[in-house]
Task: structure prediction
Amino acid sequence: MNASEFPIEISVDALAQLQRVVARKGQPGQFIRLGVKGGGCSGFEYVTRLDDRRLPIDMSIELGGIEIVCDGKSAEFLRGSVLVFTGNLIGGGFQFENPNAARSCGCGTSFTPKEKSS
Result:
């Protein structure tokens, strides 16, 4: 899969931070998982973590020497998003700039998806 087919764009700063996370905490066979799960204060919570368990619906890309994975269900909510990293003291860290979010919580870790038109 090439970068234009992967559902999430990774900013330069976010990729550099992901590389630091893998170098510091990663184990052989682990990769970065990006996705969403039910929960959070707005309905869905963003996921950015090290993982070693693959799902049949995973899609992956290698960037900067690390593997980044997103499952197909999460891709529906994240397509067109950009993962950014900010070092701000308040609200800093990984954040998704998600065009599919109708509303995000104040801390930026969860969102309500836009209604899909039929």
Notes: The longest strand covers residues 31-39. The mean pLDDT is 87. The chain has two helices and nine strands. The first helix runs from residue 12 to 25.
